[in-house]
Amino acid sequence: MHGNSVNEIRTAFLEFFRKEGHEIVPSSPLVPRNDPTLMFTNSGMVQFKNVFQGLETRPYSRATTAQKCVRAGGKHNDLDNVGYTARHHTFFEMLGNFSFGDYFKDVAIELAWRMVTQEFGLDPARLMVTVYIDDDEAFNLWKRISGLPEEKIVRIAGSDNFWSMGDTGPCGPCSEIFFDHGEHIPGGPPGSPDEDGDRFVEIWNLVFMQYDQVTPDERVELPKPSIDTGMGLERIAAVLQGTHDNYEIDLFRTLIGAIEDLSGVRQGDTGAPSHRVIADHLRATAFL
């Protein structure tokens, strides 16, 4: 990769997957066209819902996107955290790669590992991953492909590592990649009591859609398992730009600098997160 600006990172991600046979699909509208269940597009897979459910076909079986998203309410709601944490936003971009019955866990994990360690150049010693508690297949694949020691492949129970579209429909276990910002940042590894700190940050979530939840009590194997992944552009930009704080990346530095100039108030003078909140909401408002 030739640079680490937000724009260069986005381009590097999309080009990596284009070279791996993925169609670069434009970001869909923030207000979904044909999904009455959502006020705003909140993830990369929204525009592919019907494809995953077998209700629609596309002329490609592999896709990659940089999807504009808003999370300001509902199940995925980060509104109250905006400005107060280093990593939450109402508007953000989600980088993703998708397989519609094409490849599955082995290829998804191999591509993700190559992307973060070779294309982005992250030190494997600062990475750890999680898998669903009984997903032995993913555990063994990570061990073989990444070479990570077993203590850095953490089994997690519960909804954090099992994704579902709703009460029924496609669902499956997740595997998340975490970056360790270092001992000087408060927080513990995933699965620990202090996992909500900023030291270990989730940079990529791989969803392995392998089941169909027919009823609340019945789950069957999908005939064509699929892949849905999501990486926060702002989070990976922070990692690649050497900060643990999303609001210190190039994109936000420019916005916050403009807010300081217009308001005459320097960030930090008030002790409040006002500049961060304004910068975040300006982005959301501009794109909506």
**N-to-C order of helices and strands:** HEHEEHEHEEEEEHHH
- CATH homologous superfamily designation: Bira Bifunctional Protein, Domain 2
Strand count: 9
Q: Tell me the number of structural domains.
A: 1
Q: In CATH terms, what is the fold-level topology?
A: BirA Bifunctional Protein, domain 2
If you had to describe this structure to a student in words, what would you say it looks like?
This protein is an alpha+beta fold and 288 residues long. The protein has one domain (6-124, 158-183, 200-287): 2-Layer Sandwich (BirA Bifunctional Protein, domain 2). Helix content is 28%, strand content 26%. The protein has 7 helices and 9 strands. Strands 1, 2, 3, 4, 5, 6, 7, 8 and 9 form a 9-stranded mixed sheet that branches. A hairpin with a 4-residue loop joins strand 6 and strand 7. Helix 3 packs parallel to helix 4 (136-146). The longest helix is centred in the middle third of the chain and has 15 residues, at 105-119. The radius of gyration is 19 Å and the shape is globular. The relative contact order is 0.15.
Summarize the structure.
By secondary structure, the chain is of the alpha+beta class.
SSE map:
Elements: H1 6-19, E1 23-24, H2 49-52, E2 62-70, E3 91-99, H3 105-119, E4 127-132, H4 136-146, E5 153-156, E6 162-164, E7 169-180, E8 200-215, E9 218-232, H5 233-240, H6 250-263, H7 274-287
Parallel strand pairs: 1-2, 4-5
Antiparallel strand pairs: 2-3, 3-9, 4-7, 6-7, 7-8, 8-9
